[in-house]
C-alpha cells in the first residue's frame, strides 16, 4: 500500500561563528543598540566569513536533521534547497546531495525569499502525497550578508546568516494538517535583490548585459504593513483547511523578521505571547533559514514536543507569503 500521509521527523540547524552585536554595528553605521532593539527586537546576528559557503551551513543543518530522523542518507528520495543566495547560480542542491551521501536523491534549488521554507515544505509534501517519494530533506539556508549594503542602516541591521533543515517522511498518519501559499507581484519593487546589467558590446550591433547583483533594497514600512495584514489571512486559511481553530495551535513560528511583526500578528489572531516562538534577538532575519532555525532550537530545548501543533508562516520578497500547520514528530 502507498502511504501518503506526512510526518516531520527531524530538524537541524547551523549558524556561522562570527557574531556581530548592535554595539558593533553602531560603529559601522549611524544607529544604536536602543534603536535596533526597540524597532526590531534584534540584538545580534551571525555572519558568514568569506570561507564559509552556503553549502557548508546547509550540509551541517541537514546532517543534524538526518540524525534526528534516524534515516540513512542513501534512503533520501528528494532534496529541496530553499535559498536566495546559493553558492552557484546553477544551484547548490546537487553538491549538497553528493556531500551528504544521498546517492539516490534528486536535488534542486527553490527560491521564494523569506517564504522559501514554507513554500519548500508545501512542495516537498506534494511528492509524498502523490506517493512518489517517501523521504524528503528540505533545507532553508541563506547568506544575505553577502548582498546587504553595509552602509545602509535601514537594511543592514536586519539580516543574519544561517541554515535550518527538516526531514519529511511518508506516514500512515497525516500530520500536515493544512496550508496556504500566496504570491502577488504588484508590490515586487518593495523588496529586491536585483540583477544590475552592465552593457557589453560583444560584437558590433550585439550588446548583452554582464554585471552583478545590486545590494538588497527594501521599503521597510510597506513590507511591515503587508506582513501584518496578509500573514493572519493565510494562517486563518490554513486553519480552515485543517478544520481547526486558532486556540488549537500550540506554537506559532513566524518568519523571524521583526519582533513587532510577531507581536502584531499574534495579537490580531488572539494567540498568547507564550505560544509565540522567537529567536530573532540572537540571529536577526536569516531569510529562508529563520523558521527551521527557530523550530530546531525549540525542539532541542524540549519546548516543542511530539504531537504539538505548530503553525509556521513565512513572508517576504516577491511578494510571497504562506502558512502551514503540522503536528511535530512521528
Ligand atoms: N538606526 C537609526 N535610525 C534609523 C535606522 C537605524 N538602523 N533605520 C532607519 N532609521 C531612521 C529612519 O531614517 C527614519 O528617520 P526619519 O524619520 O528622520 O526619516 C526613522 O528611523 C524611522 O524609520 P522607519 O523606516 O519609519 O522605521 P520603522 O519603524 O518602519 O522600522 C524597519 C524600520 C525595522 C525596517 C521596519 O519597517 C521593518 O521591520 N519592516 C519589515 C522588514 C521585513 O520584515 N522584511 C522581511 C522580509 S525580508 C526578505 O524577504 C528577504
UniProtKB/TrEMBL annotation:
Ranges of residues in domain Beta-ketoacyl-[acyl-carrier-protein] synthase III C-terminal: 240-328
Pfam families: ACP_syn_III (PF08545), ACP_syn_III_C (PF08541)
The protein's Enzyme Commission number: 2.3.1.180
Keywords: Acyltransferase, Cytoplasm, Fatty acid biosynthesis, Fatty acid metabolism, Lipid biosynthesis, Lipid metabolism, Multifunctional enzyme, Transferase
Region ACP-binding, residue ranges: 256-260
Segments forming domain Beta-ketoacyl-[acyl-carrier-protein] synthase III N-terminal: 108-185
Subcellular location: Cytoplasm
Catalytic residues (UniProt): 114, 255, 285
Catalytic activity: 3-methylbutanoyl-CoA + malonyl-[ACP] + H(+) = 5-methyl-3-oxohexanoyl-[ACP] + CO2 + CoA; malonyl-[ACP] + acetyl-CoA + H(+) = 3-oxobutanoyl-[ACP] + CO2 + CoA; (2S)-2-methylbutanoyl-CoA + malonyl-[ACP] + H(+) = (4S)-4-methyl-3-oxohexanoyl-[ACP] + CO2 + CoA; 2-methylpropanoyl-CoA + malonyl-[ACP] + H(+) = 4-methyl-3-oxopentanoyl-[ACP] + CO2 + CoA
Main location: cytoplasm
GO molecular-function terms, A-Z: 3-oxoacyl-[acyl-carrier-protein] synthase activity; beta-ketoacyl-acyl-carrier-protein synthase III activity
PANTHER family xrefs: 3-OXOACYL-[ACYL-CARRIER-PROTEIN] SYNTHASE, BETA-KETOACYL-[ACYL-CARRIER-PROTEIN] SYNTHASE III, CHLOROPLASTIC
UniProt free text on domains: The last Arg residue of the ACP-binding site is essential for the weak association between ACP/AcpP and FabH.
Similarity comment: family membership: Belongs to the thiolase-like superfamily. FabH family.
Identification of the protein by name: Beta-ketoacyl-[acyl-carrier-protein] synthase III
Provenance organism: Planktothrix agardhii (strain NIVA-CYA 126/8)
Chain's gene name: fabH
Amino acid at each position: 500500500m502507498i502511504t501518503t500521509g506526512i510526518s516531520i521527523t527531524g530538524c537541524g540547524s547551523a549558524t556561522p561563528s562570527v557574531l556581530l552585536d548592535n554595539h558593533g554595528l553602531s560603529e559601522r553605521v549611524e544607529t544604536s543598540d536602543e534603536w535596533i532593539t526597540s524597532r526590531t527586537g534584534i540584538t545580534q546576528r551571525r555572519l558568514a566569513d568569506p570561507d564559509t559557503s552556503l553549502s557548508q551551513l546547509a550540509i551541517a543543518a541537514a546532517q543534524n536533521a538526518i540524525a534526528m530522523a534516524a534515516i540513512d542518507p542513501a534512503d533520501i528520495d528528494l532534496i529541496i534547497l530553499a535559498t536566495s543566495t546559493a553558492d552557484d547560480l546553477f544551484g547548490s542542491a546537487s553538491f549538497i546531495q553528493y556531500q551528504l551521501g544521498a546517492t539516490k536523491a534528486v536535488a534542486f534549488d527553490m527560491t521564494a525569499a523569506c517564504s522559501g521554507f514554507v513554500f519548500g515544505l508545501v512542495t516537498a509534501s506534494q511528492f509524498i502525497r502523490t506517493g512518489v517519494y517517501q523521504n524528503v530533506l528540505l533545507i532553508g539556508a541563506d547568506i544575505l550578508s553577502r548582498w546587504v549594503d553595509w552602509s545602509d542602516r535601514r537594511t543592514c541591521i536586519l539580516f543574519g546568516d544561517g541554515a535550518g533543515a527538516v526531514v519529511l517522511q511518508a506516514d500512515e498518519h497525516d500530520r500536515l494538517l493544512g496550508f496556504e501559499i500566496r504570491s502577488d507581484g504588484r508590490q515586487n519593487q518593495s523588496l529586491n535583490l536585483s540583477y544590475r546589467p552592465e552593457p557589453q558590446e560583444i560584437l558590433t550591433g550585439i550588446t548583452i548585459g554582464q554585471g552583478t547583483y545590486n545590494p538588497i533594497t527594501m521599503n521597510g514600512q510597506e513590507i511591515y504593513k503587508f506582513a501584518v495584514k496578509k500573514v493572519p489571512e493565510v494562517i486563518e486559511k490554513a486553519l480552515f483547511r485543517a478544520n481547526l481553530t486558532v486556540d488549537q495551535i500550540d506554537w506559532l513560528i513566524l518568519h523571524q523578521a521583526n519582533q513587532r511583526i510577531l507581536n502584531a500578528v499574534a495579537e490580531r489572531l488572539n494567540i498568547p505571547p507564550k505560544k509565540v516562538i522567537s529567536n530573532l534577538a540572537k540571529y536577526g532575519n536569516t531569510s529562508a533559514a529563520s523558521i527551521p532555525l527557530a523550530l530546531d532550537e525549540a525542539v532541542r530545548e524540549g519546548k516543542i514536543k511530539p504531537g504539538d501543533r505548530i503553525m509556521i508562516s513565512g513572508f517576504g520578497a516577491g511578494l510571497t507569503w504562506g502558512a502551514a500547520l503540522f503536528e511535530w514528530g512521528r
